Amino acid sequence: MPGRSCGSCTACCRVLEIRALDKPAGILCRHNTGRACGIYAERPEACVQWHCLWRRIAALPDALRPDRSGVVFGLERRHPGEGAPEGACIVGRAPDGEEAFARWEAVEAFAMFVREGSLPVWKAYARHAILMNPSR
Ligand code: SF4
Ligand code: SF4
């Protein structure tokens, strides 16, 4: 989205798996300085290409920026549920705990994605994953 930038958010540097760096999901990248990427110009292609949905969708409010809301929404290729099939889906992750899902901006964002209905929508935290539109 034009005009929307990460600012001091670095949530995806923790949430994403970056295979080129052998970085597992859920662990802060060793190149993260706390406020930015320490190898920004040479960061892996996976980091260059990836933007969370807050960066992509104008309808999501400023309050939903992941470092403010505690929830990172992303378009993912693999369903997070155990035994769930491969395929595009929307995942809202709360890396610091499920309490973040109770905030109004997260509640409204999940409702918007479920209403739109074109993809499965997952709520993920710790080792849990909940499908929000089970009819899919
Ligand atoms: S989670 Fe989104 S807003 Fe935060 S650093 Fe990553 S792309 Fe930027
Ligand atoms: S290389 Fe940079 S952008 Fe990529 S995860 Fe690490 S700190 Fe974040």
UniProtKB/TrEMBL annotation:
InterPro entries in the record: UPF0153_domain (IPR052572)
Lineage: superkingdom: Bacteria
Name assigned to this protein: Uncharacterized protein
Organism field: Methylobacterium pseudosasicola
